[in-house]
Model the fold of this input.
Amino acid sequence: MNMPDAEGLLLADKAFVALRELLTNGGLRAGQFVSMPDLVKLIGLPIAPVREAVKRAESAGLVRILPKRGVAVMQATPELIRDCFHLRTIFDQEGARQLVRSGAAARLDELRERHRRVLEAARHDITPSLQREAMAVDWALHTTLADALGNESAREIYARNRDRISVIQHSRPLLPDRIVPAMEEHLQIMDAIAGGNEEQAAAEVRDHFRQTLRWWGIIV
Done:
C-alpha cells in the first residue's frame, strides 16, 4: 500500500528514486538479474512500493520484469547503444543550433575551461578522480545543449534517455583512451558554437556521435 511517509512523499516515489540511483550509478549493471527479495534489501523499503518502482522503471525502459523470477536490467545491446546515442544526438544538434541563434555562446566559457583542464590533465596522467571529473564534464555539455532547447517535453525525453545511457556507460566506463578524444570533440562543438556557425556546430555533434559509436565498436 502506497501510504505517504512523514515527509509527505509516497514510498513508491522514494523506492523509484533509490532504484534509479542504483541503475544509473552502477549499483545494478546492464544485463544483471536481481530477485525481488534482493531488490527489497538493496532499496530498504517494503515490497509493495518496490514493485511499483520496478513497474515505473520498466515503463522507462530501464528494466524488464520477469514474472515469478525477478527483474532484469536492460541489456547494452549494439542496437540499444546506437538508438540511445542517436536520440541524444538529435537533441544535441538542435541545442547547438539554438545556442548559435540566441547568441548565448558565452554560456559555454566556463564549461570550455573545464574541458581544457580535464584535457590537459588527461594528457599527463589519468587517475580515477579524473575519470569521474571527465564524465561529469562530458554530461555537463550534453545537458547544456538539451537545456538550450527550452522545451519541457524534450527535456523529459532527454532525461529518460540519459538514464538509459548512464546504465549503458557502466557496462564500459569512460576509459583513458576515450577521455582525450572526447574532450577534443566537445571543444570542437563549443568552438563552432562560439564561431556562430550553426551547420558546423551540428556537424561537430554528429561527428562526436560517430566517434562515440566507433569507441563502442559500432560502425555507422
The chain has a mean pLDDT of 92.
